[in-house]
Design brief:
Shape of chain A: globular
Largest interface: A-B, 35 and 35 residues
Largest sheet of chain A: 8 strands, parallel
Number of strands of chain A: 16
Oligomer: homodimer
Strand order of the largest sheet of chain A: 4-14-13-12-11-10-6-5
Strand content of chain A: 15-25%
Helix content of chain A: 40-55%
Mean pLDDT of chain A: 96
């Protein structure tokens, strides 16, 4: 344990990196995948089980938490960690992205965003200053700058203006965050798919100075190839000695491609959301458990998986409880997906440390290309 | 472990009894409360967690399982225990009660009941013989006779005719069950609230001979006092040296009153169903977690409870996740209710063994009469 926030880059293999982020609440092994605990819970999971999957850190959503149950309430109850019974690190987003995607009647100015709650229509205001205050009340270990994230495709002028406002907001976020030992503030690079705008953004952020740097504004409709093309240059524009976080990514092959390009941290609702809809990620590709082919299948979902869904149950059982809409279905399938995602991260960390990332990646893709086992 | 089914009555205190039912799949401490695993899952619970609450045995519903996923399918997959990852004893009901309460287009004759599935409208037939076969396919440790259970109030003639048919069905059930070492068949006493009909039923069952005896036909609309009045004589009509099972009961005070009157086993969906609707049973009475008074309350639901909901979370958190309709709400609240029910059973077992059941019962009622802690 440590009283300060620091990043220890331990090995590289090509552009892929492995290391450890030290925080007062525990270490985060990188590359790290952060499960999303939107409303103070990773849906369908007990926090002990999330930890068992191998997660070192969770993501909490400022937008959701500020609306319900409210940041002051959480602060009065001892902070988000205690509230949700997760004593390890928590990263919170700034709320900006979800204001854009979920709220109603948004009004965006240089000062910030006024919007109405999607839950009860109540009126709220988010700005760099209020976002920093809310994330402080939540007790977040890694705080994200308040930024604007335009959907792609967007024209260059829109991207440029938005990025420059986000950089002014980054400065205001830094100012409002102040000096909070043991807590980190991450800047967010914007600029769409434009290399020069990304470079300008990266420079602006570094001149302010942050504890880590996110690549924002990707995985917003541009497709995997365009994202990878951008990741071929964007991480290189950021400091080598700080964590690099790709926000909102992604599918297993997105994650592997991002790590290959120098990303250290990611988050996504995909494994938990897909778990609830019966879409499973396995070493041999995607399995849809609601398919009738599984109804009599005594075999595990993924023979190599260590999760309870694979160790203790047949595909037939997982199919049955999914079809019967039993809660254990969401519980087991989410557990599986989160375990698989964490196993990918562990595999990459080990491979990078051993200098065998290329071999690991080839085996990863080969397994998935096989497709699911044959029906019985 | 043992290869046979047997009941070891260890202590009595008044009419209350404590003992152990030995089965090849493990011991069942009595008085025992059996959580209900309707469709091969105790809703919202992992089986390991059900075991942690203190449950020695689960109940499975023949009606639900025969319709989905089907008894032959479960048999082909290695039986219900393996299917649902519960290796301890399972009792299955006969399907008769739920045919009456859930299915459509029922046609009842001396031979059995024809009905349509509430899931897909498919046509099925249940009789003493088919019920025994389905329960055998499931691999049930304690099999229940197929009977008819009339709702109360019902006129005496209806009760008498129904009871006598159930006794003929009990004989057919015994015949169809055959000789299955290590598996038990329980007869079911009927006769409504009529002492002489209950006596006639008890005699008919004993002349057939069963491994245990259920008091059926109660908790079907008659109210607690009428049920207790019936339990003042009905268990005494059954053999002393065999387990006595009161079906479908009940609320905590129903359970305590039944044990006081000589009942050894019970089952009910109440703790799990109420958990999902936010109704919690505590040492100080019922708590409705959706009530706004809990929104800022940092205190545990029940300070004396050992379950994760009470050990690791505030009332404020439980309120929040219930209002946000998060799955962890059903998970935690069910866990609490099942733990509380099992703690009542353990308390009664200990008190009966110590000869202090009356004192335990007085303390139980006094705690509940206190009502919930004052709002902050």
């Amino acid at each position: 344990m440590t009283n300060t926030f620091s990043f220890d880059l331990q090995n590289t293999d090509g552009k892929a990196r492995t290391g450890v982020i030290h925080t007062p609440r525990g270490d985060i092994r990188t590359p790290a995948f952060m499960p999303v605990g939107t409303a103070a819970t990773v849906k369908a999971m007990m926090p002990e089980s999330v930890r068992e999957t191998g997660a070192d850190i969770l993501l909490g959503n400022t937008y959701h938490l500020m609306l319900r149950p409210g940041a002051e309430r959480i602060a009065n109850l001892g902070g988000l960690h205690r509230f949700m019974n997760w004593d390890r690190p928590i990263l919170t987003d700034s709320g900006g992205f979800q204001v854009m995607s979920l709220s109603e009647l948004r009004k965006l100015t240089e000062k910030g965003v006024t919007f109405r709650s999607h839950i009860d229509g109540s009126k709220h205001f988010l700005s760099p200053e209020t976002s920093m205050e809310i994330q402080r009340l939540l007790g977040s270990d890694i705080v994200m700058c308040f930024d604007e994230c335009p959907a792609l495709p967007a024209d260059r002028k829109r991207l440029e203006e938005s990025m420059r406002m986000s950089m002014r907001w980054a400065e205001r976020s830094r100012e409002a965050f102040g000096d909070r030992p043991g807590h980190a503030l991450f800047g967010i690079q914007q600029g769409g798919l434009e290399e020069d705008l990304r470079a300008e953004s990266a420079e602006a952020l570094q001149s302010i100075g942050f504890d880590g740097y996110a690549v924002g504004g990707l995985a917003v409709g541009e497709g995997q190839q365009a994202m990878f093309d951008c990741l071929d240059f964007a991480p290189d524009q950021l400091p080598v000695d700080k964590p690099r976080y790709l926000m909102g990514v992604g599918k297993p092959d997105d994650i592997v491609g991002a790590v290959k390009r120098g990303i250290d941290m990611m988050d996504c609702v995909l494994p938990s959301r897909s778990g609830r809809t019966g879409q499973l990620f396995t070493r041999q590709g995607v399995v849809n458990i609601k398919n009738a082919r599984h109804a009599d299948d005594p075999r595990p979902l993924d023979e190599a998986c260590r999760c309870p869904a694979c160790r203790n149950y047949s595909r037939a059982y997982l199919h049955h409880v999914f079809r019967a809409q039993e809660m254990i279905s969401g519980m087991l399938l989410t557990w599986h997906n989160l375990t698989y995602f964490q196993d990918i991260m562990q595999g990459m960390r080990d491979a990078i440390a051993a200098g065998t990332f290329a071999e690991w990646e080839a085996a990863f893709h080969a397994g998935r290309a096989q497709g699911d086992i044959e029906p019985l």
